[in-house]
Design a protein that fits this description.
- With about 70 residues, the chain is mainly alpha-helical.
- The radius of gyration is 11 Å and the shape is globular.
- It has one domain.
- It is built from four helices and no strands.
- It comes from Phocaeicola sartorii.
- This is DUF3791 domain-containing protein.
Length: about 70
């Protein structure tokens, strides 16, 4: 049950990311899985799975922005 909830959360975040970056969901999924935020989301020790979707999206966007600098 817990994994299903996480997968639904990930799908919502990926769709938000695709919308924000104006890219396909498939491309957004690839970007998402290449982030540190994704790793942290899958590790319950960080508690990121308890945060809201927009909070996590903002973490991803900040991470991507820092990579470009």
């Amino acid at each position: 049950m817990k994994e299903q909830v996480l997968w639904r959360k990930i799908s919502r975040i990926v769709m938000l990311l695709a919308e924000r970056l104006e890219i396909s969901p498939e491309r957004a999924l690839g970007i998402f899985y290449g982030t540190r935020t994704c790793e942290m989301l899958h590790d319950s020790r960080y508690g990121l799975h308890l945060m809201g979707d927009l909070y996590i999206l903002n973490d991803i966007l900040q991470e991507l922005q820092e990579r470009q600098s």
